[in-house]
Amino acid sequence: MVFSSTLFLFYFLPVFLILYYLAPAKFKNYIILLASIVFYSWGGPLFIFVILFTTALDFILVKQIEKSSSRKKKKIFLCISLFVNLGLLFTFKYLYFFTTNIDSVLTLTGVAPIGMDKLILPIGLSFFTFESLTYVIDVYRGEYKSLKSFRNYLTYILLFPKLIAGPIIPYNKIAHQIEGDRKTSAEMRLSGLLRFIFGLSKKVLIANVIGETVEELYKLELSQIDTAIAWAMSVGYTMQLYFDFSGYSDMAIGICKMIGFTIPENFNFPYISKSITEFWRRWHISLGNWMRNYLYIPLGGSKGSFFRTYFNLWIVFIISGFWHGAGWNFILWGAFNGLFLMIERLYLSKYLKNNLAVLYTFFVANIGWVLFKNEDMNVALMIYKKMFSFEFNSLQILDFRFVIMLFFAFFISFSGLFKSFYSATQNDETLFVEHKWRLNLLFTLSIIFLVLSSSYILGQDFNPFIYFRF
Predict the structure, then answer these.
(1) For the chain, which terminal residue's Cβ has fewer other Cβ atoms within 10 angstroms, N or C?
(2) DSSP output for 438-455
(3) How far apart are CA 431 and CA 438, in angstroms?
(4) How crowded is residue 13: how many other Cβ atoms within 10 Å of its Cβ?
(5) What are 224-247's pLDDT values in tens digits?
(6) Prediction pTM value
(7) Is 176 a catalytic residue?
(8) Are 12 and 97 within one domain?
(9) How many domains is the chain partitioned into structurally?
(10) Degrees (nearest 5) of the Cα angle 43, 21, 28?
């Protein structure tokens, strides 16, 4: 079930909010937990038991970590948790990848391949695995006490707005809210609703419209693709990916605000960055923070030798790429970004000061997204070749809606104009008092966008969600 579906938008969410608001305070977490189980089970009824098993095991192991006075025992319980969580992630997401690559080597040597069918990936496995690990590691480090209630911990893991696509929320950032320390107000609920609608509009009106044309362009024969079409394919996907994922994050943040949760931002206008280093501080912020706190720093961060620092940096980005998908294109995409971070630290950073650096960043990010999009490296190489062949011989006319939405995508991404609108929806105290004109404008726009988004959802079948497979 995705947020931009008729089932969620017209049935699940309204029923959930009515039940939640009508329920007494002591029952609200039960409503959230029940709704989260239904939400996840709808798309994968068997996989809910995978989550229930891992959360129950982690809850027990963390209690043992906290009780143990011996450092050795703490490490044993920690290792059991890491083995189970990462083992499940490896089995469902990466085992087929490694098996097929081993089979390729075995075939070359004349040995019979192992052979295995590709497993169905549980929705959101990467996200809730990382969140489970934050809970275990934080308690092991002594940075936070374990939750007393298993129900509260299960609510943290299953909280449906962020379950399948994040943001990845460290357990210590939300535990107190789950335990009851959260208050809602009319301002907060309204700002959450506005944030949800604007996120829905980004996903449906921009990402879907652009993505539909991008998919059609990928179906063209090689002879029909020239430089202009190749750039339309790459730039179109660059914008589709951003508005698809950031729109979904906006919807998650909005739903959470409507029920009293404040969760971290996941995007901060990444395409206005003046370096790839800055880009990764603005793109998928929660994943970047997780990689820094639970991988880069434990590896030694930048405290070691020159070689060790850059080795750590590159390893983190290769793993980040592999986290996104079990394919060589994702590994190369991670290495590509890691390489540019290293080059910037070594040489380029002193030149990336003015606004022209924004064009450099967008160009590099766009080149990288071609790798990200195409698991078939031959397709990626073909697009690169066409992008820089400077052949303009196609009579292909791009869809008018694609051109218009691509214009709006660039306008929103680079002008930062909507940043003031978002800031209004994020500041509940000033929403009704200091910015009444902005509230009226936001409310009017939200009605228009909601009607347009609903009409699109009801009238179109094309409604992918790119990060579902991660």
Answers:
(1) N
(2) HHHHHHHHHHHHHHHHHH
(3) 8
(4) 20
(5) 888 999 999 999 999 999 999 999
(6) 0.91
(7) no
(8) yes
(9) 2
(10) 65
